[in-house]
Structure formats: structure tokens, C-alpha cells
Design a protein that fits this description.
The chain is of the alpha+beta class and about 350 residues long. The protein has two domains: about 120 residues, no CATH class; about 160 residues, no CATH class. It is about 20% helix and about 25% strand. The protein has nine helices and 16 strands. The longest helix has 14 residues. The chain is globular, with a radius of gyration of 24 Å. The relative contact order is 0.16. About 0% of the residues have low confidence.
């Protein structure tokens, strides 16, 4: 998901693109839709093939995506960009097959000629990538605390242990404990959606309390002493969805500031898988602030100078009731389309 804060709106887009990661002039500049339509497999150092060296770094690739899609610009007040952020991005190196036959280089998928063999091509084909230690690595899916089995969906980055009610995030071969809370409900068939509840320090704008947010963003709500003393938390969905819905949902939860009874035990049904970690969530703070603000001409120019320092993130599971094609939060009176959420498991009714 890519978000760009411009004067005075927020552009967003779900990007899925690919381009040549080398400077080989005899190769096509893109693989087109192959990465979406063809079956891929993990590369391994034991593959009996020649893997050519890439010449493009991850940061350079992201920069090229911005330029290619027209999502670039400078931080200026007039025609530039106040803030931009990639959320939940995945950068992969994909190798497309090619082969030499009768001094002609062929596309290995379409069996079509790419270029005739030359001294340059022959020399470049010898530049093999031999330093990458590829391969699938496995880690134990046992709870570090009690030894119970950890469970989670295929794309979940947080695994849960129902034996001791703990949550874990695999990081570089180790398990990192994740603090979580579950919103209490009497609905047995509720669907639980995960959100990151974040406390941050903001330098450049007074945002310590919820009352500060109301004043800064010009929200339609009266300020009282209770709100002056209520600490501000930003919320971000911990699952992937359309960027427009993602932005509205995070902004809505931040304005609501959910409260009530929270438990430290998982529900009987499997919660929606967590697909975004806390570091990705902290990157949404400026975008969420811009989205919920009614005073856009006041807030947007401040964004480049704001310094966001993460303090703490807690994973919060909120219950939604199933009603036809929608998920409804009955307490806060808003709904989400079920098909807007990827890999959502609906309890058997």
C-alpha cells in the first residue's frame, strides 16, 4: 500500500509491479503479468541453473516504483508532497528463465528469441550470483513459554498459543513476545479483527492527550476535563486490505479510542491473521493524522517537520458480528465488507 499526502488530499494505491533488476540491455524491461499468473517456487542455492547477478538494491527498487507510478515529489507547500509512506511492502527478487540455443538467447517461458548471442551477452552471462545463501529455513512452532503448539494462518506474522494465552512474532529465527488484548463480548460467533494500539511521542505538534487531537485536527467534538486527561492512542489495522478502507478504518478507530473490558485470553474462534507488524503500524501515524484531520491546510504543512517516536504497541482484537456480506461492530455502529479483508476465516454457524 502506498500513501501520498498532497495539497490537500491523500492519494493511495495498491501497487504490484515488476521491472528489470539488472542493466542487461538484451533482457526485457518487465515480466508483465507473469508474476501474478504463473506459479513461482523458492530459489535455492542447490538449483542446477545459472542465476545472474542483480544490479538493483531494495531502496533503489522502491524509488523506481515511485517514479514509475507517478507517486514521487518533494516536500513543498504548492505542488509537491507533504508525506509519503509504503505500508506492508514486500520486495522480492524473481528470476525469469532464459536459455541459449544456436547462438540465440530465448525467453524460457514463451520460447521466443530475445537477442542473438554476442561477446557482450556471453560475458554478462558469466556474471553468476554465487554468494546468496538461499533456501527455506524452518523454525520451531512451539511456544517458548509452555511448549504448546503455536497456531496461525498461512500469511500470519503472529502465532498464538492457546495453552498459555500468549502471542509470538518470529523475528530472524527467534520468537518475540507480542502483548495483546481481546475486547470482551458475549457474541460466541464474533469475528475478531486485529489492530495495533500505539502510543507515540510527537515532536512538532502537541498531541499528548485526546483533547490535543480534537483541537489540532478540528474534530467535531467538545473538549472536557476527562478528554484532557485521556492519553491519545493511534490505531492501525494489523491486516491488509484496500488502502482506502485501511485508511478510513484506522482513522475511525483512532477517533473512537475504544475502551471497555479487555481480556488476556484468546477467543474460541481463530482471529483474523496479523499481516502487519508494529513497526509498519508506526509508519501509519502521519497518514492517519492527515486522514482524520478536518483542518487539512493547518495539519498537512506540519507533517514534514513532525518527529514520531514510537513508545509502545499493543495488539488489540476487536469483535465484529456477521450480518450478510458485512462485519458490524455493534457498539461503535460501523461496518466493513467481508470481502475487503484477505484470508478472513468465518466461524461455522
Amino acid at each position: 500500500m502506498h500513501f501520498v499526502v498532497r495539497p490537500f488530499n491523500i492519494k493511495h494505491k495498491l501497487l504490484d509491479t515488476n521491472f528489470l533488476a539488472s542493466d542487461y540491455t538484451f533482457m526485457p524491461v518487465s515480466m508483465g503479468f507473469r508474476t501474478q499468473t504463473l506459479k513461482l517456487k523458492f530459489a535455492s542455492k542447490n538449483m542446477k541453473t545459472c542465476l545472474l547477478k542483480p544490479a538493483l538494491s531494495r531502496d533503489r527498487a522502491i524509488s523506481m516504483v515511485e517514479k514509475k507510478t507517478g507517486f514521487s515529489g518533494d516536500y513543498t507547500d504548492n505542488d509537491g508532497v507533504f508525506h509519503k509512506a509504503f505500508i506492508g511492502e514486500t520486495v522480492s527478487m524473481i528470476y525469469s528463465p532464459a536459455y541459449l540455443k544456436n547462438d540465440v538467447l530465448y525467453d524460457g517461458v514463451l520460447d521466443r528469441p530475445l537477442s542473438r548471442k554476442s561477446g557482450q551477452i556471453e560475458e554478462r552471462l558469466l556474471e553468476r550470483d554465487t554468494k546468496r545463501n538461499w533456501g527455506i529455513k524452518f523454525i520451531s512452532a512451539l511456544c517458548p513459554d509452555c511448549g504448546g503448539d503455536l497456531s496461525g494462518a498461512r500469511d500470519s506474522i503472529v502465532l498464538i498459543c492457546r495453552n498459555c494465552n500468549s502471542a509470538w512474532h518470529p523475528v530472524r529465527g527467534n520468537m518475540k513476545r507480542v502483548e495483546f488484548r481481546v475486547f470482551a463480548t458475549k457474541e460466541e460467533e464474533a469475528v475478531y479483527l486485529p489492530f495495533w494500539k500505539m502510543s507515540v511521542d510527537v515532536r512538532g505538534l502537541e498531541l499528548a492527550s485526546f483533547a490535543d487531537l480534537i483541537r489540532a485536527a478540528n474534530l467535531p467534538r467538545a473538549v472536557n476535563q476527562e478528554l484532557e486527561e485521556k492519553r491519545l492512542y493511534f490505531y492501525s489495522p494489523a491486516f491488509k486490505m484496500h488502502p482506502g478502507i485501511f485508511l478510513r478504518l484506522g482513522s475511525r478507530m483512532t477517533v473512537i479510542q475504544p475502551d471497555g473490558e479487555f481480556r488476556k485470553e484468546f477467543p474460541g474462534t481463530m482471529p483474523c491473521p496479523v499481516a502487519l507488524d508494529d513497526q509498519e503500524a508506526f509508519e501509519t501515524v502521519k497518514v492517519m493524522l492527515a486522514s482524520m484531520s478536518a483542518a487539512k491546510r493547518k495539519i498537512f504543512p506540519l507533517l514534514p517537520g513532525l518527529e514520531i517516536t514510537p513508545r509502545k504497541a499493543v495488539l488489540v482484537y476487536l469483535p465484529f458480528n456477521i450480518s450478510g456480506s458485512e462485519l458490524i461492530h455493534t457498539r461503535y455502529k460501523f461496518s466493513i465488507l467481508r470481502n475487503a479483508i484477505r484470508n478472513l476465516e468465518i466461524p461455522n454457524r
